[in-house]
Specification:
The structure is a homodimer. The first copy, chain A, is mainly alpha-helical. Chain A has a single domain (20-106), classed as Winged helix-like DNA-binding domain superfamily/Winged helix DNA-binding domain (Arc Repressor Mutant, subunit A, Orthogonal Bundle). In chain A, 52% of the residues lie in helices and 6% in strands. Chain A binds a DNA duplex through residues 1-2, 30-32, 46-48, 56-61, 63-64, 66, 77, 81-83.
DNA sequence: TCCTGTGCTACATTTATCGTAGCAATACGC
DNA sequence: GCGTATTGCTACGATAAATGTAGCACAGGA
């Protein structure tokens, strides 16, 4: 699994262009990535609470996504335990808020 | 591979809640989905041009994503050939535009 | 007719994710 | 101390999804 340290560019899958938007789209395009950010939007959650919020997704992927999101600087592990958004992550989450309104109108 | 007709709700993976935002986050959280929307943001592209734009992603997934995005009503296949965004898809894409600015500031 | 480009598919290989179980560490109350 | 509960996190076999390469049928254009 991808878990190498965030030393370098890390050639995020399918985006060797170096354009940051591609790296971001790729990171957010992995399973549960968007969902994790969404579930943390209001308050920090423990790893198990987050798992519950994410329909009991397997801890393997959740842990992988959390590591990636932490390396990206969007999520952090509070010293008292529990995952929360960093200021940057909160900012990113704000970017996604209009999606909520859109989804409500969409209603497949 | 997921390819069933859009007959029913289709229980989008990991979102049995019925909340549309979950379905949307799930759909957009599949590989190349966000990227496809992004690459189509300006002009329609043929399937092969889209493939080139997406770093030569395998046509199997691209075709799968395109089918899903079409069923969702975000993408359509123009009668002259070439994939383009529907008005709804364009609207969704607008929602993601702030992401571009964010990514530029992010620059991992 | 041949050539080119379109959307799209087959299929074997590789990779990601799932599901279940369990670990070490850190607390609690007794 | 002892048990018990919770934390973050990992192992590992089974399953689902993505990759890479090749190629199909169809529709023009020369």
């Amino acid at each position: 699994m991808a878990k190498q340290a965030g030393t370098a560019t890390r050639s995020v899958r399918g985006s060797r262009s170096g354009r940051p938007i591609m790296a971001l789209l790729d990171l957010l395009g992995r399973r549960w990535a968007l969902r994790i950010l969404w579930e943390l939007r209001e308050e920090p959650l423990t790893s198990r609470a987050l798992r519950s919020a994410c329909d009991e997704a397997s801890p393997t992927v959740l842990q992988a996504r959390l590591t990636e999101l932490r390396e990206a600087g969007f999520v952090e592990l509070g010293d008292g335990g529990g995952y929360g958004l960093t200021p940057l992550g909160r900012e990113l989450c704000e970017t996604f808020m209009p999606l909520h309104r859109f989804a409500e109108r969409w209603r497949r």
